[in-house]
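Incident log, structure service

09:12 report received: a user says their structure output differs between two submissions of the same chain.
09:20 pulled the input from the user's history:
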Amino acid sequence: MPVIEAPGVGHRYVDRVVLAGVDVRLEERRVGIVGANGSGKSTFARMLNGLVLPTDGWVSVDGLDTRREGRAVRRRVGFCFTDPDAQIVMPTVAEDVAFGLRRRGLSRAEVRERVDRVLAAHDLAGHADHPAHLLSGGQKQLLALASVLVTEPDVLVMDEPTTLLDLRNAQRVSRVVEALPQQVVLVTHHLDLLDGFDRVLVFDEGRLVLDDVPDVAVPYYRKLMA
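09:34 re-ran on a clean worker, output below:
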């Protein structure tokens, strides 16, 4: 698994401290992140591929610094947002998946093969030519996931990917994530998704307050929120 290091990480927005004193090394296959809204968890997740840069400390992925080598980091670390509409940029499903492969030096045949393969893997092959924004909520989230996975990242960071989904589609996305070979860092309010994870980070008021296995971290978080 890739090694993500974040020693002494913090982030300030003007005079407001969003995140402070985070010191972690992530090398497990499945890492969960939980915390109340505004706890700093999404800020930390976005630091892992350079979407947000730390104002204190540094973040690296297998030695690649997110500040100095952001492009190389983003080739290694894919990111899925809460709202898939924030990621859908092309008119049709197949075009949207292919968009992530631009500037990869692939031939048209290679692009088509990759796109076809990832659409089939996520039950979207029959929707290849459909308007992307007319898909159901669950299908849009699968499309957003497919558009990241087609680039073959080593790490997948997901920021609350099931928040806008009903239970059936949330379970569907959960099954897809469970089967992925990539290292996954999952931010979620749906605590059941963390079953079988290796590690869970609990954030509160901009700080990492617990780092443990799910059987310890989830009850701690429930008590914290109560």
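09:41 both user submissions now match this output. Likely a transient worker issue. Closing.
09:42 reviewer note: The chain has seven helices and ten strands. Strands lie at 4-13, 16-26, 30-35, 60-61, 64-65, 77-80, 155-159, 183-187, 199-204, 207-212.
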